[in-house]
Amino acid sequence: MRFGGRYRLAVHNLAGGRRVVQRLGPDDGEVAFQGTFSGPGAEARVRAVDNLRLSGDVVWLTWESFRRQVIVKSFVADYHSPWWVPYKISCVVFHQTGTMNSHSSTTSALISADLGNALSAVTGTAISLTPVQTALASANALTVGTSSQVQAVNAVADTLASINEQIALQTTLLATPIPTSSNPSGIIPALADALSSAGLLAAAVNAASYIGRIGTQINGSNS
Fold first, then answer.
1. Which residues, in sequence order, are CB contacts of 126 under 8 Å at separation 6+?
2. Which residue has the higher pLDDT, 53 or 147?
3. Strand-pair partners of 34
4. So what's the pLDDT on residue 221?
5. What is the Cα–Cα distance from 109 to 98, expressed in whole angstroms?
6. Exposure string over 49-76, b if 16+ CB within 10 A, otherwise e
7. CB of 88 closer than 8 Å to CB of 53
8. How confident is the model at residue 184 (pLDDT cuts 50, 70, 90)?
9. Exposed/middle/buried for 172, CB within 10 Å: 0-12, 13-18, 19+?
10. Which of 20, 46, 77, 219 has its CA 20 to 30 A from that of 102?
11. What is the 3-state secondary structure (H, E, C) of 24-73?
12. What distance in Å separates the CA atoms of residue 223 and residue 204, rounded to the nearest whole number?
């Protein structure tokens, strides 16, 4: 696979040797590769790839850990027989998952802020946000259609379900009347438990609001 490109810069040379550089963003070169279709299905596969060239559709090109959305610019087949067809392909990169547009960059910053606030909210509690942290650490968590995005959505859903269980539990405990007793030693532990439940409930509700918004932002990247 031959791929790469350059980073576009607008360089303005000013008087006195000063220079102003405008960063215009990445400019991917064409992705080119070659090989041979072989075997009884070679001719059908040649027709399928040539149809991609004819259609001009945006399609996914993946190899190893690389993933690009491309348009097939050229496809040249050297037909020897129905079962042996060498070929060369050149593709124009339409989009690559490693490049964030301004919207994605803003969304990523908002998600990071919400995650930080959620982590602060659950500090000192048994509520774990590790699954969400792990899922959001993936570079493709906001990339539509990737397994990383699906994992991030699932992690948020599972974490919200766990937090909601805590909310329901602490709400039930707080609704339990504190037993009246003439002996203060019997009331003090109950008050301490109620105070603890109130703190856990506040932490859970706070965290749920941030994690829920993270889920909305991740799903919003589909639009």
1. none
2. 53
3. 88
4. 56
5. 16
6. beebbeeeeeeebeeeeebbebbbeebe
7. no
8. low
9. exposed
10. 20
11. EEEEECCEEEEEEEECCCHHHHHHHHHHHHHHCCEEEEEECCEEEEEEEE
12. 29
Quick one: tokens of 201?
């409930």
CA distance 114 to 130: 14
User: Max alpha carbon distance in the chain (Å)?
Assistant: 99
Give the single-character DSSP code of 81: B
Distance (Å, whole) CA 136 – CA 114? 12
**Overall pTM > 0.90:** no
CA distances from 158 to 86, 121, 216 (A): 49, 18, 14
**Are the C-beta atoms of residues 94 and 73 closer than 8 Å to each other?**
no
Please report which confidence band the pLDDT of residue 185 belongs to, taking 50, 70 and 90 as the band edges. low
Tokens for 87, please give them. 């070929």
φ/ψ of 40, rounded to 5, equals -65, -25
